[in-house]
Amino acid sequence: MLKVPSPGSPLGSTAAPVAGLPAARPQTSCVIENLDFCAEVGAIPRESIDLIIADPPYGLGKDYGNDSDKLDADEHLEWTEHWLEMSIPLLKPNGSLYIFCSWQFAPEIFSFLKRRMTMINEIVWDRRVPSMGGTTRRFSSVHDNIGLFVRSRHYYFDLDPVRIPYDAATKKARSRKLFEGSKWLEMGYNPKDVWSVSRLHRQHAERVEHPTQKPLEIIERMVLASCPPGGTVLDPFMGSGTTAVACARQGRHFLGYEINADYCEVARERLVALREMTPGAPVPATTRSPDDEAAADVPLDAAAAKVAAAADASPLSDASGIHSNVSY
Predict the structure, then answer these.
(1) Cβ pair 91, 162 in contact under 8 A
(2) DSSP per-residue letters across 297-323
(3) Domains of the chain by range and CATH?
(4) Is 317 a residue whose pLDDT tops 60?
(5) Chain centroid, CA 5 distance in Å
(6) DSSP characters for 86-99?
């Protein structure tokens, strides 16, 4: 059984803060499994995960190098309910789940989850798709649906790291005596539930070889808001490793599953590139595949022991904590 580290008990020491410099990033582990999450879920202890970020196949026939997105509608919903049913018990009592989906299946998926968890938000990701023709028989679909669900009303949520700062002109216009010292004015506003973030077009500096790669900005917002520092994030359908990169940048432990070996390699390359730019950032310490004989009993603590000592966090993001100026 995988041993999942707990927040508040960092694996190894971290450097003491130095006046005028950012505090050191917590030492964290990053484990990539080239395995089927549904087949391996029994290796993860119950109530050991702080946050699940799930970006599964949408059931729209995308090519992920396999048949994972080739199910018909009924089969897709049955499969979705199956992996969700196995995932929920992995969350801590204060844990959260984000799930990406499309409008075609969002009603059924959200209805299923609402019978088992508490729904906090439906987030609309506006992909900023340019107006270039499109269908003439309906309105063009330019968004993804994201559901935020929690296990209890005591769920972890920290708004401050993901507040969006006001620009100088707006801040000045809203600076009245009544509002002086208000956190929302000084630190920024709530991102709300419509996230207008451009999709990663082919020329985007962040883009890698994956058909449905999500922007780092979106995933970091989820990690910062819904997982405590030093907590553990599970990604059952890791894809190109964006959640792994977000966790490495923000001091969270990561456990990810991906059945496509090529995507696992892409994720590893992204983490290696991050480490070269940010000393102390973790690289995958354990990568298992279906060919491994010993595909169980791999402790995350042992993986984390291979991670280099944490270094001072680089200022890779602006005050909002989510807008990256670094290309991977």
Answers:
(1) no
(2) ---HHHHHTTSPPP-BPP--B-TTS--
(3) 30-130+137-158+191-304 (3.40.50.150)
(4) no
(5) 18
(6) HHGGGEEEEEEEEE
